[in-house]
Amino acid sequence: xxxxxxxxxxxxxxxxxxxxxxxxxxxxxxxxxxxxxxxxxxxxxxxxxxxxxxxxxxxxxxxxxxxxxxxxxxxxxxxxxxxxxxxxxxxxxxxxxxxxxxxxxxxxxxxxxxxxxxxxxxxxxxxxxxxxxxxxxxxxxxxxxxxxxxxxxxxxxxxxxxxxxxxxxxxxxxxxxxxxxxxxxxxxxxxxxxxxxxxxxxxxxxxxxxxxxxxxxxxxxxxxxxxxxxxxxxxxxxxxxxxxxxxxxxxxxxxxxxxxxxxxxxxxxxxxxxxxxxxxxxxxxxxxxxxxxxxxxxxxxxxxxxxxxxxxxxxxxxxxxxxxxxxxxxxxxxxxxxxxxxxxxxxxxxxxxxxxxxxxxxxxxxxxxxxxxxxxxxxxxxxxxxx
Length: 387
What we know:
8-stranded parallel β-barrel, two-stranded antiparallel ribbon, 36% helix
């Protein structure tokens, strides 16, 4: 329903993940029966969780470990891993600098050019470790390194930017990336994002996207919403984009997954994104907390090192457990940030959803008090949901 913002402007109410709750139906099932399998670009995965292509979250080893656990990790091909042959001392500098010098240091470190030979090297390293070589580039880099990506043997290519559309206007001196042509020419599936609307999702699917990323600015380390004022809360964004997926499937018979990207910290957040219509989620900060994560207990946004307009920051998330404990348990924390898969399966059991398609159909209510109702002691003592 439209709301009159002023005499000349109407607005639509949008909802975030924190504002909704999932409603149990007439049936329940044992969590062991809950099927969380899904497919992206012809690759079957047991777990609908992807680790974000962020330098503090995914390196070659992390990506390989996630693949072995049944999930997926995406490597940023415009980050530290492809600018420096040995990224370890660079990561040490990033995590040790003070707050006041952080942005300028990032701008300095990321000014080092991307090396095409390191793109090939990192992809090969991921495959050598038995991982799935999923990599991420911006549209500009996709055009620049298309040939390298084509022959390097990546399994999946993610084209990511704050907003990606098929109707991009560029100066006369710049030839914009033709997304449809790129998807057609590449020998591997191409995932496109990010977007938050029905129309753009539908256009990206028509362009040949193997999956679509949904989310502008909700990430823990992202400041785009503050810097640009742009974004749509995730519950509404995912629901709108999922509607485009369903209409595209009805028209073409081709099912294109929708991936909720950003703003998700707990198992409950993941459950609510699937219930809003998502096929999977992409998360960063939960995995940045894993022992052995490249960020060493820190996490920063992909647009943080921008030389002209940084739209990310560095946050300290700490180290709370192993990658396996965070993803599969057993949980050592009581706040929903460990055993994310166990949380999803238990929620599906409580809601009576046998698989992800049924989870997408559960009832949802608007519930602003969901996370605060009755939690006065947890809040006062900073435990559980009060942290």
